[in-house]
Amino acid sequence: MRIALINPPLAERYVNSIDEPLGILYLAASLQNNHEVYLIDSFNNLLSTEETIKIIKELDVEVLGVSLIFTGAYQTSLEIIKTLKQIKPSITSIIGGNTATFLADELAGIPFIDYVVRGESDISFPRLINAISTDRETTNISGISFYKDGTIIHNPAAPLVEDLDSLPYPARELLPLKNKYPRAILSSRGCAYGCIYCSSSAFWQKTFRIRSIDNIINEIKLLNEQEELQYFSFADDCLTLIPDRAREIAARILALNLDCTWGCTGRIETMSEGLIKDLADSGCKGIFFGVESGSNRVLKMLKRRYSPADVYTLYRLCLKHGITPYFSYIIGLPFEEKEDLDQTFDLIQKLQGVENGIHILTPLPGTPIFKEADKYGIKMASCDITNLDINGKPLITTKHLTAADINDAYRKAVGYSLKALRKRGVQ
Amino acid sequence: MKNSMFNHAIPWQKNKTLLVNTFSGAIDVIPSHFEYYLTKATQLQKNKITDFLFARRYLLEKEIDEPLILESLYRELLARQRKNSPLKSVLITTFDCNLKCSYCWQQHNTRSLKSSTLSVEMVDAAFKSIGKLHNLLKEKSTDPPVIQIFGGEPLLTKNKELVEHVLKKCREYSYGSQVTTNGVNLEIFQEMLLEYQVDEIQVTVDGTEEAHNRRRIGSNYKSIMNSIANILSYQAAFLKLRVNVDLSNVNTLRDLADEIIDRRWYTNRKFYAYLAPLRDSSFASTDLITQRPKLLTKVLELKRLYPQIELFDMKGWDGYQPVRVLENTGRFPYPKANICDVNLNQFVFAPDGKIRLCAEEAHSERGIIGEFYPEFSFDYTSFQRLYDHSPLDIEKCKECTLLPVCGGGCMLMEKERNFRNHYCQAVKDCFEYALTAYLESREENCASL
Ligand code: B12
Ligand code: SF4
Ligand code: SF4
User: Fold this and answer.
1) B200 inside domain
2) Residues having CB within 6 Å of any atom of ligand 3
3) ipTM of the complex
4) Ligand 2 pocket, A331 CB below 6 A?
5) SS3 letters for chain A?
6) Which residues in chain B touch residue A391, judged by CB atoms under 8 angstroms apart?
7) What's the total number of domains in chain B?
């Protein structure tokens, strides 16, 4: 079958980088032996919704698979599917990804959407495609939601991939401008932490699965043979979740003797100087950390096992070993009071010369604060799904802060952050 | 023993003096009576106080020739900067403008000019001369030359074809391109600028909507901001937002910063915003220069109250710049070797067919160093005189304790010199205010640690 997999445009683009859309690259890898697969990466190639539609139309595919990962792509995804269904009613429209998973009920009820594939789809999506292409019954396939005879049916969850090594490597050769993408490697799926504002735990069914280090290293080796890698990033939720494993990965990368740097996401409580040094020695140049707050009290409420002082130590250690840390903060946390915000401002100002992400607490589908807003004392303004955006306007009030307070604090935090960025880091 | 030429004393708290050596970067709070040791340096006996002042380089050995050392440092710093500066050609595409800002220097100067706009042939001739000029420069970056499309206002509808011609030429020669615009016609030109992949667009606003539309009559703030948003969404061209400030619009900075933050432009790596203190280059009055210290005080005070204003960088504010560097790097900067791009590989092509080094004097007979149209000619001696100008060349500056932080006056603009006293006072006041405020805030912080 002719299948188009789409990474749709987002309402707003905040990142300045190009990033491989690994979800559809993995799916394409599982499908491409038996089907003709096309990838349209609109988000990274800055294609508008209209341009995306035009390309799909020209490809004249039989199946349209849209990757609705980000809430910000909700509207554009629907517009793409709706328009193509109008142009070619025989097309089978399928939607999957993080946001699609948690909004499956709503999406499956939309007339122009044929199937929603929930959660990890490496098993269920190829099954669905094979059934469609051979005209077999689709209604018994696990992991899918659809509308039938006036009701929305959610089949039981699909089994998770038991052995991640069994998956083919992402089908990068299908990317447009394939040599332009800095490569992304996914060494694990899931996360063990379960932060209140994050859907990872719910999405990956509370599991944390890893690939063998041999399998990961082979992928890196292969990429280097193909194109002389200069930079790659680990797309894992948290590469350092098991510190010894991260150290081993680093040691194996070092042994490859590449002329290449890389980046990843780390969790503050897993970091030690030994780990930082090993990562740095093997070419790691940047690590993203979620700091969230500069208030000890708030960090305790978030069940974090680090203090602002630990963050400062980590910052010094990273710089010492030549790694640029990137820190992210959330304004509007449920327990946060004005004094806590002042402490966050202080911490931002202390970590000089590095970039920060300043975000606003936003209940995204699938997160604990979305499911149990009351428990966290959060009141949510009504809005379109597309506007659920951690970089957007505040949509919540908490027990202690109004939306206006949150906005004001957000703007201040941005100012302090830009001021601190101009300063050279204290070595 | 002798006193360093660059000891600058600022009254500090009771009976104390803040002593700064603007050359070495030494900063100390000293009992005020130490100043006596500096003024009488040549007659002094060695003692504990002179040892201290000597160790901190406020007092020097007699043989040390500071101007000579400074001069050679200037050469070194200039060479370093030039090696990072590609040849930049400023094309004054036209002297015409679609706005009538009261503070604009060109309005007053260009009204009586015969030729006000470049022709297509002149543009072609300019591009041909660039190659020759490039070969003349010894110290330059290896990056390709950059064309800055400048005015007047370069983006006038009547000049659309001319601008497109320049952009085509840039593409043909693989030169970089920049546009400096008041934004009035950005909406009309944005597609062209994006299509030709212009590297940098600089747009000016004068505060928030109300302040901007009031001062820049004929300009529409909303249209400018929407065009900027559109350009940024492509993440292709670098967008520099210049915000003109003076005492009458400084209070709108908070709202402007809020708007920019709410538009999330700051997350875009292609966006940069900075504050430019308004100057009256028409020399109609000294008001704006005299107000400068008050303006700086106000901006820094607002930044403390509303940190979002930190969004705006403040590079190049006379007198404040060294303190900004100190604040950001923990070190006092090197002496400022140049005050503009005249000695940094810049050539200006004006509608009269002449080549100059300074864009602000593009209308005048001063500073002509050659011709690009109808024939190419180049006067190396005139070029050298400006290109190698040193801050020590101006008599008054040579004696000034602030020379390393100020960079000295301009040798082209006679008029500016008439106002030199006001200007120098402003540099001094800004420097002293900013340094004291910075040190005081550090003291406060230290006390709280
Ligand atoms: C890498 C990454 C990015 C990259 C690239 C994203 C991409 N397109 O792949 C970049 C840097 C662009 C990015 C940006 C952001 N990200 Co991000 N990102 C990730 C991360 C860490 C990994 C993505 C990944 O490769 N996953 C691995 C693959 C295998 O999983 P997958 O993509 O989910 O795909 C599987 C299924 O979803 C499904 N599937 C996916 N597509 C499709 C399509 C069809 C048709 C079907 C049937 C199935 C299907 O099958 C795939 C295989 O099993 C995820 C977290 C995570 N672990 O998934 C967050 C995540 C996607 N990001 C998130 C967020 C919040 C952001 C930002 C908003 C944060 C910010 N900094 O502001 C920005 C948004 C950018 C913007 N507007 O400009 C959230 C999304 C929340 C939401 N509901 O919107 C996530 C889930 C993190 C989290 N746990 O909260 N991100
Ligand atoms: S935010 Fe990060 S650490 Fe927290 S649950 Fe999500 S993926 Fe895990
Ligand atoms: S311009 Fe004035 S302040 Fe600057 S160095 Fe010359 S005399 Fe001193």
Assistant:
1) yes
2) B 396-397, 400, 402-403, 406, 408-409, 424, 427
3) 0.93
4) no
5) CEEEEEECCCCCCCCCCCCCCHHHHHHHHHHCCCCEEEEEEHHHHCCCHHHHHHHHHHHCCCEEEEECCCHHHHHHHHHHHHHHHHHCCCCEEEEECHHHHHCHHHHHCCCCCCEEECCCCCCHHHHHHHHHHCCCCCCCCCCEEEEECCEEEECCCCCCCCCHHHCCCCCHHHCCCHHHCCEEECCEEECCCCCCCCCHHHHCCCCEEECCHHHHHHHHHHHHHHHCCCEEEECCCCCCCCHHHHHHHHHHHHHHCCCCEEEEEECHHHCCHHHHHHHHHCCEEEEEEEEECCCHHHHHHCCCCCCHHHHHHHHHHHHHCCCEEEEEEEECCCCCCHHHHHHHHHHHHHCCCCCEEEEECCCCCCCHHHHCCHHHCCEECCCCHHHCCCCCCCCEECCCCCHHHHHHHHHHHHHHHHHHHHCCCCC
6) 264, 267
7) 1
- Give the per-residue pLDDT at B108: 57
Tell me the nearest-neighbour CA distance from A393 into chain B, angstroms: 8
When the pLDDT of each residue in chain A is averaged and rounded to a whole number, the result is 96
Render pLDDT for A338-396 as a digit per residue (tens, 0 to 9): 999 999 999 999 999 999 999 999 999 999 999 999 999 999 999 999 999 999 899 99
Q: Which domain holds residue B105?
A: 75-387
CB contact under 8 A, B328 and A14: no
Separation of CA A395 from chain center: 21
CA of A99 to the centre of ligand 1 (A): 9
**Domains defined along chain A, listed by start:** 2-154 (3.40.50.2300), 182-422 (3.80.30.20)
pLDDT digits (tens, 9 = 90+) for B74-106: 999 999 999 999 999 999 999 998 887 766 655
Which listed ligand is nearest to B289 at the C-alpha? 3
| Rounded distance between C-alpha atoms, residue B245 and residue B248, angstroms | 8
First-residue to last-residue Cα distance in chain B: 40
Decide if B248 is inside a domain: yes
CATH of the domain at B333: 3.20.20.70
Q: Which ligand is nearest to the CA of B432?
A: 3
Q: Which ligand lies nearest to the CA atom of residue B413 in the structure?
A: 3
Q: What is the pTM of this model?
A: 0.94
Q: Does A46 touch chain B (CB under 8 A)?
A: yes
Residue A180 touches partner B, C-beta closer than 8 Å: no
Above pLDDT 70, what percent of chain B?
93
Q: What is the pLDDT of residue B204?
A: 96
- Ligand 2 centroid – CA A238 distance (Å): 7
Collect all residues of chain B within an 8 Å Cβ-Cβ radius of residue A10. none
- Would residue B204 count as lying in a domain? yes
Task: Count CB neighbours of B385 within 10 A.
Answer: 15
Q: What is the dihedral of CA A192, A197, A202, A206, to 10 degrees?
A: 10
Please tell me if residue B233 touches chain A, with a CB cutoff of 8 Å.
yes
pLDDT at B109: 60
Bridge partners, residue A190, by sequence:
A208
**Substitution target from B308, B312, B321 for chain A, most A beta carbons within 10 A:** B308
**Closest residue in chain B to residue A357, using alpha carbons only:** B267
| Contacting B residues, span 250-269, partner chain A, CB-CB under 8 Å | 257-258, 261-262, 264, 266-269
Reported as a single tens digit per residue, the pLDDT across B140-165 is: 999 999 999 999 999 999 999 999 99
- Does residue B133 lie within any of the structural domains? yes
Closest atom of ligand 1 to A265 CA is: 21
pLDDT at B38 over 70: yes
In tens, the pLDDT along B301-330 reads: 999 999 999 999 999 899 999 999 999 999
Identify the pLDDT of residue B218.
86
